[in-house]
Amino acid sequence: MPARRRRTLSRSPSQRARMWDKKMNPEVYSKYLESTRGIAMERVISYQVTHEQLIAMVKRIVEQFGTEGAKTHEYMWYAEKLWKLVQTYTGNALQNESDFLYLYYRLKGNSDIILRAIAQSLGIKISSIGDILGKAGIEVGLPPPTVGGIELIKTGEIEIDSDEKTIFEREGDPTLINVLFWSEELGEEWIGFNVEIYGCFKGDETLYHISGTSLNMSRYRPIEETWELPAPDVCEIRTWLWHGEPTTLKYAVLKFPTEVLTRGEIYVNNTEKTICEIEKPFVRYDGLLCMHVDDYSAGTMRIYRKPLETENYLNIWYDYDVGFDPYYPIFSLYWNFWYLNSGYRDRITYAVTDGEFGTLRYVFYRVL
User: What is the pTM of this model?
Assistant: First the structure.
């Protein structure tokens, strides 16, 4: 190993300052810029195109989430760092670096959905929270009874097989429900199972399918959770295995705190009718519509919006096609992200466009 190079000349602070002034002298520095301008221009121009594409991608994703638009710059920095990771790493190294970057921005309070969507647009699939923490040697167990108002309302074990089984029943105001599954007994082969939510409005006796999702688990992915499932006044969560061998799963059911904004019923036909108006300082509301028919009925629900300081509603802000039949009389409006700021009022209307007329029952609620 060669000997360490020794410093033969040292400069005092005043000498370093004079040297810096000479380097920054306009005549000297202009020659440096002239000789390096071509290289710098190539680098700037090549990245400028990428930068514009990243900006457009981030804005397209963030604009769907209302108030998150205030954090556009934060998501832009995240996208730029992800892009640099794509240029630097591949394979497991890219996955690990992307997961840890995601976790950093997630802990800063940014939206999980937006962060994952940005990564997906760059060809990166972010691992589950359980997988990321597992890489750091942190064991993921049962969530605490309440986290940010989300309440743990049931835990249990289920022998999951091809028969549909009920793991949870509930009565109360409409809300959103999330289910977490985990297991220590999974083999090499993965299992696939459905989680479905059935329910009805107050006064009804039959439970109808509302929504559901499909989950995959293996020994390499032993923890999985559902998207938020809209739950009406009376509901059941059912599950059944569609791939793999029967096994034992542990689960936890969590409930989001919600507030019912308005509910009621109105007879609807092919004339557009106002079913309700909503004015409240919150960020998002969801809803459930119910209409019992002998054959089928299709309609259009519209939302008109106006600032509070104006008298008249503006043009149609949202237009949504709705359908009912004897087997699916309940329609969920969750995941449409209707954002309502404190300075607006919404008028919601409905008109039948095809099929039967009848009584439309509705409930709109918000997550606290």
Answer: 0.59
Integer Cα distance of 360 and 362 in angstroms: 7
Which element (helix H / strand E) includes 146?
strand 146-147
Q: Is the separation of the CB atoms in 222 and 186 below 8 Å?
A: yes
DSSP secondary structure of 6-38? PP-----HHHHHHHHHHHT-HHHHHHHHHHHHH
Last residue of a domain, one of 95, 116, 135: 135
Q: What is the pLDDT of residues 235-244, one digit of tens each?
A: 999 999 998 8
One domain, residues 267 and 311:
yes
Nearest Cα to Cα of residue 215 among 229, 231, 227: 227
CA 126 – CA 103 distance, rounded (Å): 10
The number of helices, as runs of H, and strands, as runs of E, in the chain is 6, 18
- Letter for the amino acid at 31? K
User: 26-62 and 13-23 helices cross at what angle (nearest 10)?
Assistant: 80
Specify the CATH number for the domain of residue 153: 2.60.120
Number of domains the chain is built from:
3
The residue-averaged pLDDT of 291-295 equals 93
- Give, in order, the Cα–Cα distances in Å from 330 to each of 84, 233, 268, 296: 46, 12, 15, 12
The label of the residue with tokens 């061998």 reads 245
Are 248 and 263 found together in one domain? no
Q: Is the dihedral of CA 89, 91, 94, 97 positive or negative?
A: negative
Which tokens belong to 302? 């519209």
If you average pLDDT over residues 93-100, what whole number do you get? 89
Residue 324 domain flag: yes
- Give the domain CATH number at 273: 2.60.120.510
Q: Is the pLDDT of residue 316 over 80?
A: no
Last residue of a domain, one of 223, 255, 287: 255
Q: What is the domain range of residue 108?
A: 29-135
Is residue 246 domain-shared with residue 268, that is, in the same domain? no
Number of neighbours of residue 107 by Cβ within 10 angstroms = 8
Quick check: 248 and 185 in contact, CB under 8 A?
yes
Residue at 301 is within a domain: yes
Residue type, 145: P
Conformation bin of residue 176: beta by default, left when phi > 0, alpha when psi is -120 to 50 = beta
